[in-house]
Amino acid sequence: MPLIEELRNTRQELLERLMQSNLHPFINEMILDELYDVEKAIEKYENGQFGTCEISGEFLPEDLLTLIPTLQTMDDCQSLKRFYRKALYD
């Protein structure tokens, strides 16, 4: 699955970025937050739970997961709607 490879590559890039000592603490915190989300998505993939809402268990929209594979809940999906002019899914 290309998506899991992308997640693994992203994890590696984030880890490499954290090794740089000249990061502003705010940037460092943002990278750590993103790394946590990526690690969680990889773990969900390995456990067969990738793509399901952590609250309801329903499937998350595949088109959104392709764009943002670290989505965790349907609430995350709903909050993205305000950034788009047309509906993402029905």
Word description of this protein:
The chain is mainly alpha-helical. The protein folds into 2 domains: 1-49; 51-90, no CATH class. 58% of the residues lie in helices and 0% in strands. It contains 4 helices and no strands. It starts with a helix and ends in a 10-residue tail after the last helix. The model has no long low-confidence stretch (mean pLDDT 88).
Sum up the structure in keywords.
mainly alpha, 0% strand, 90 residues, globular
Give the uncertain stretches in residue-range form. Answer: none
In DSSP terms (H or I, runs of 4 or more residues), the helix count works out at 4
Helix-residue proportion: 55-70%
Number of structurally distinct domains: 2
Structural class: mainly alpha
Number of strands: 0
Q: Largest beta sheet, briefly?
A: none
Share of β-strand residues: under 5%
Subunit organisation of the chains: single chain
Taking the alpha carbons of the first and last residues, their distance comes to 25 Å
Shape: globular
Mean pLDDT: 88
Our Rg estimate from Cα atoms comes to: 15 Å
Q: SSE order, as H and E?
A: HHHH
